[in-house]
Amino acid sequence: MTLVKFNPKTNNSLMPGFNDVFDSVFNDTFFSDRMMAKVPAANISESADHFHVELAAPGLKKEDFKLKLERDVLSISVEQVHEDQKQERNYAKREYSYSSFLRSFTLPETADQNGIAAKYNDGVLCIDIPKREEAKVQSRQIEIK
């Protein structure tokens, strides 16, 4: 028996072209840009004395971000509401747009939650999470007797 991947565009013999209509509607930029959730990409790195989180979120202001720490979970959220209103002689136009995202990261036990610092520069939110002193990698020379 041979397995063949199902392709709805070629395997829909009852109603050819039916899926093409929906593909063109839902792949439209209106749906992809406005209806789909956009969550910024994150880079997480670790060094000997801290954890570092970088969140790519261009086009925002630092005031747009809300950082919240609750029960070892660091949450980063943005919520934007925009209203455009135009009044002309015979008509009124009012448009709304809304966008939001939420990213949450569970902090390890080695994180020093009191020393967390964040800055936003050039479209990247950088969060530094220091490690507790006892968790930092310490190296020393051991004398051989």
Distance between the termini: 71 Å
Give the C-alpha Rg.
25 Å
In the sheet with the most strands, the strands line up as 1-2-7-6
> Helix segment count?
3
User: Uncertain spans, ≥5 residues at pLDDT below 50?
Assistant: none
Helix residue percentage: 10-25%
The computed structural class is mainly beta
- Main pleated-sheet profile: 4 strands, antiparallel
Q: Indicate the mean pLDDT.
A: 79
Instruction: Indicate the proportion of strand residues.
Output: 35-45%
Description of the molecule:
The chain is mostly beta strands and 145 residues long. 14% of the residues lie in helices and 41% in strands. It has a 4-stranded antiparallel sheet, with no helix packed on it. Strands 3-4-5 form a 3-stranded antiparallel sheet, with no helix packed on it. A hairpin with a 4-residue loop joins strand 4 and strand 5. The longest helix has 9 residues. The model has no long low-confidence stretch (mean pLDDT 79).
Keyphrases for this structure?
145 residues; mainly beta; three-stranded antiparallel beta sheet; 3 helices; 7 strands
